[in-house]
Amino acid sequence: MRAKDFKQSWDRGQKLEEQFYELVKLRDPNARRATPKEQYKHIDFYTDFGTIDVKSKKRIGRADVDEQETIVWLEYKNVQGRDGWLVSCVDILAFERDDDFILVKRKDLLAMANKKCDLTDMVTKSSDALYKGYTRKGREDLITQVKMIDLIKLNNRIWSKNGI
Fold first, then answer.
1. Nearest to residue 23, comparing CAs of 162, 136, 155, 116?
2. What is the Cα–Cα distance from 86 to 156, expressed in whole angstroms?
3. Degrees (nearest 5) of the Cα angle 64, 158, 59?
4. Most buried residue, 59, 66, 107, 133, by CB count within 10 Å?
């Protein structure tokens, strides 16, 4: 990733986490942000109802201009080949959509992904990664895509970006 793209992505993620933190505080005044060390465990927030990792909308391919909300990337292994956020210890994953966040239990999402995705069927293009394994060139990650509708079918909570 180019330095400019990385900075834009980083800044967008920080802004999104700030927006999400305001929503968390409405539901749990005792919630706190994770420390930088805790963030290496894929935790963004500690709350009375569990740890949360916030996921922003993503582009499907590097050439895409805009992020979208119909396809969700799932990370089994990160770019260094270590456990990704889908197999982490975090309790809840909060996925950004245009107007809200959908919150699902990580374990439920992992179970669904393990049933629906064939990670042994490896593809070479991100546009072919729906329910299949994909590794980006020059990286050691293992990622896949599922449809947002798959998350909606799980036990979930929806938090409007406008508040409660």
1. 162
2. 16
3. 5
4. 133
Stated pTM of the model:
0.91
Rounded distance between C-alpha atoms, residue 146 and residue 10, angstroms: 24
Distance from the first to the final alpha carbon of the chain: 36
101-120 confidence digits (pLDDT tens): 999 999 999 999 999 999 99
- List all residues 6 or more positions away from 81 whose beta carbon is below 8 Å from its beta carbon: 140, 141
- Dist. CA 123–CA 128, nearest whole Å: 6
Please work out, in degrees rounded to the nearest 5, the angle formed at the alpha carbon of residue 79 by the alpha carbons of 77 and 80. Answer: 90
Q: Residue type at 81?
A: G
Token duo for residue 130: 């729906």
The pLDDT tens digits for 6-34 are 566 667 778 889 999 999 999 999 999 99
Kind plus residue range of the DSSP H or E element containing 116: helix 106-116
Q: What is the rounded (10 degree) CA torsion for 44, 47, 50, 53? A: -20
3-state SS of the chain: helix, strand, coil percent to 5? 30, 35, 35
